[in-house]
Amino acid sequence: MPVNDFLDHIVEETKKEDTFLNDTNVVNLLFGLLLAGYESTSHAITLVTKFISEHPNVLAELTKEHEAILENRGLSENSDITWEEYKSMTFTHMVINETIRLSNMVPGIFRKVMKDMQINGYTIPKGWIIMAALPVVHLSADKYENPFVFNPWRWQGKELNAGSKTFMGFGIGVRLCVGAEFSKVQIAVYLHHLVTKYNWSVYKGGEIIRRPMNTFPNGIHIKIEEKYQ
Ligand code: HEM
């Protein structure tokens, strides 16, 4: 049987002697592929589309940033985006962070308590698993002015690529999301093509339900046409 995709590789791997891939690990890997690897980025792309459709000033600023990239390229407009161009997309990264902050697509992260801890008069015993509820931080008026407003400019001059005590959308510390940069590249490339090549508008859907991840019960429907036909 030819080995083509991820599942084929896993099946082949399970047949080997002394493989680490027992049934539990296979299920975990497939769960990771579908949820962490696919659902996350596709949800982020849907969310960012919704937010920028509702904020024409953000869309205008994004379009400015990406059209400047095309103008400065000096190559064919159709050549691929370079790593340097990707890294220069400061406003785009601000939009991505703001999307992750406001949507709280990952509502919590888990940690094991390594030693007894005292917090606000409570003892959290060693060995317990705790969940840090990220919206409590990301939507706190103490940490973010008008926290429920989608405002990418709030990220101006701030760290955009690492977790911090006030932003844990991709986690924090040694367990920081391994796919963070990968998903940001995908979102940035999507936005680049969306704003430079197409006129588009949302005409249906966009409502969000949390259970506990964000879902779009009615999808989000956009009308789209090429800008320069
Ligand atoms: C917008 C997209 C994404 C968001 C918001 C996101 C968010 C997160 C968060 C909050 C964590 C927990 C980190 C922690 O406990 O400190 C995490 C972990 C993880 N993510 Fe993502 N993620 C995204 C995309 C991806 C993608 C595309 C992949 C794979 C290609 C991925 C793979 C993982 C893995 C394997 C972990 C576990 C890391 C570990 O425990 O060491 N994620 N992610």
TrEMBL record:
Q: Does the keyword Transmembrane helix apply?
A: yes
**Any one Pfam family match given in the protein's UniProt record, by short name:** p450
Q: Where in the cell is it found?
A: Membrane
Q: Is Metal-binding among the key words of this record?
A: yes
Which keywords does this chain's UniProt record carry?
Heme, Iron, Membrane, Metal-binding, Monooxygenase, Oxidoreductase, Transmembrane, Transmembrane helix
Any one GO BP annotation for this protein: brassinosteroid biosynthetic process
The similarity annotation says: Belongs to the cytochrome P450 family.
What name does this protein carry? Cytochrome P450
Q: Which organism is it from?
A: Acer yangbiense
